[in-house]
Amino acid sequence: MSEPVVTDDGYDVVIVGAGIAGATAAKVIADHGGKRILILEAGRSTGMSSDKYRSHVTAYHEALAKVPNSPYADNPNAPQPSVLSIRQLLPGPAAGRAPAAVLDTGGYFVQTGPLPFSSDYTRALGGTTLHWLGTCLRMLPNDFSLRSAYGHGVDWPIGYGDLRGFYERAEREIIGVAGDVADQRYPGIDGTYFGGYEYPMERIPPSYLDQVLARRLDGQTITVQDHDYEVWLDSVPAGRNSTPRDGYQVVGAVGNPEQGQRCEGNSSCVPICPVQAKYSALKTLYDLQRRHPVTAAPTGQRSSVRIVSQAVASRVLLDEHGRVSGIAYQAYDDEGSPRYEDRVARGKVYVLAANAIENATLLLASGAANSSGMVGRNLMDHPLILTWGLLEEKVWSYRGPEVTSVIPAFRDGAFRERHSGFRIEVSNWGWSFGPDGLYSTLATMVDGPERLFGQRLRTRLGEVVPRQFRLALEMEQIPEESNYVTIDTGYRDRLGNFRPVIRYDLPDYVRAGMAAAKEASDQIFARLGVPPLRLDPAGGPVDDPDLFPFPRDYTRYERADPGYLTYRDTGYSAGGAGHAAGTHRMGGSPRTSVVDSRQRSWDHDNLYLVGCGNMPTVGTSNPTLTMTALAIWAGENIVEDLRRRS
Amino acid sequence: MAIDARPAPLPAVPPDVTAEPADAVDAFLRLSAALTGFDRMELLGTGMVPRYYDELTRIIGAREVGTLLAAAGRVEPGHPASGEDLDRAFREQILDDNRFGPVARRIVTMWYIGSWAQLPREWRNTYGATSPDVDHVVSAAAYREGLAWVAAGAHPMGAKQQGFGAWARPSRLRPGTGAATSTVTGVEVDR
Predict the structure, then answer these.
(1) Which residue from B minimizes the CA distance to A274?
(2) Neighbours of B139 (CB within 10 A)
(3) pLDDT digit string (tens) for B18-50?
(4) How distant is the Cα of A68 from the closest Cα of chain B, in angstroms?
């Protein structure tokens, strides 16, 4: 192979990955002025103008399976995982065979089991914020000290108090969060958690379903594993435009700022907000292009930010002193062809912001930052189970943002000594999660035993669908070295880069959390007047779920489900939340962690890592907000490093 | 032998090429109203009638469509007034028929969610498989015009949004005018 061309030299900072972590670090650094910044994105540009963005909305409308990556075309030069590729890896007990791991190479991930890693991400400009839901819960104080508080996982080298100011900046300067502090009544917090703070925008109104549930549940006590818990609903802070407070400047759609200034209720946050009322990293990237255009000699307040897509980082180059000397990348012209040109980008400081899994494979491929042996290890997600049913009254589902309220009772408490904490999300999208709930309901009515048509079909659908509701119970997964992403020379993508090879399982601590969560859900259903389906053919009348009797709990976990697992002889179908984390964690020691508390590599003093990979534990909050706060912190530290060097 | 390359002269009076297809589309509209429970005006309002007729013809062919529409036409005349009888006749002669039933159900699904689902294997083996008969979304517009969302008091995800905060209030069902194919006429407006 010929020598790579050094086409990009003299940058202050080279960033790999144009998602929210990379865009955030770039913005923090650029806003200090006088910096030259290069951002490399492996995927294609996606809609930095309003009309191009709309093309992805149309792609979503045209997609048969409306999964999270459906609006964003597959790109063989920067392949991405798809939830449609998730397969069961161990034959179920019913198969009557001894469990033997089955290698699944059918998707982008090479899955070695025993459980499939069930989450995806997006490789395109804007990254996974293109299809994130927008939930912006902060972590709780005890989440940062899980080991010392409850004897599980590890402690962070920093605490909630260190991050609080960065949370505020993430909520105001980067994402734009709508929420009411008065609604955030989490266990384990006191008045100092928010201080006198208020979110920049008023809360997204809780759904009609939330209100119905709150009337029945707020202040009720449920008993889980012989312990009593009071339950209530909190409206959830979200990266979604609402009514601004105190002169906050709402950020509308990229290239069309008059659009998307407030959520319109398109009910498709995942996978795409048609009006861009929901934050995506495209907004931050567009802002950077506008305020810090590419110039040869940035001065004063102005920096120069160059964003290059179709540039796949393939190696982190190291010099003889153990410092990073460049990022080798492959520039391709056309994703329909495997042709590319080798290039190298050089700068003073380097930032990897390519997602927890891609950062890990890139570091492993480069033999970089891994003196601890922790790169790729401690892979985490928020494993979730769903419960669903029909309520007695109509709650008019399939309208509004997917989640406007959560039940926070199990986010923290002494029970975390025994089993994982979990968050309970109330879904406004009926039975939809991946496979469309309304579609399968219709299919049952039309093709099932009743073969409904005409006015009867119309009427029945109007009776059943508005009564559908669903909970998602999302566990805190604890870090384990045995859950990892690695690389193997036998598995490469079209450009020759390593595909992630994943080993994944869930420990009893998390499975016990699932059992507790299901018990909590059963009690919540009971308080809502929703009894279980009667399915036992041995005794009494039997419900036919295909006839949709209500109110009933329709939750069933099938042995054939991809994430099916058991705990104490009870089966659960686990899914992923799209929250890959932990693969290059921060810590207090270079022997057990990859980055220090400043987010800098222990091994290379001009290499920073950002993204959920830095998180030692994940708590029960969606990780994007915390990742963003950490990326701001990283950006400030990079500015300090640059100042010290010059 | 010389080849006469001149085009054939146009007939003095063009044949009425529009008459039959228009009748067929109208028959398809009547069938669609019976199958969906949405009346002619509601269906016409989606703008999808000609597109779905074409799509159906593309997938199962003009002969099969013609046979189906003819069969559906034979159901109606004897039962102009009685919804329940007509409903039963439709079920017996169309929905429960081996040839027409599977196609009729696919038409329902197409109207309700804008997607075509491949016909059952038995049907394709008996009446002939075609290459367009695969699972697909008819078009982005077809998705957006799905009747299932209307029937549920909702809106297609990612389109026809109801406005800021609408989700905080109960929705309602658009009162159907009661297509004459069912005794179920009083559609619940609200709870």
Answers:
(1) B158
(2) 16
(3) 345 678 999 999 999 999 999 999 999 999 999
(4) 13
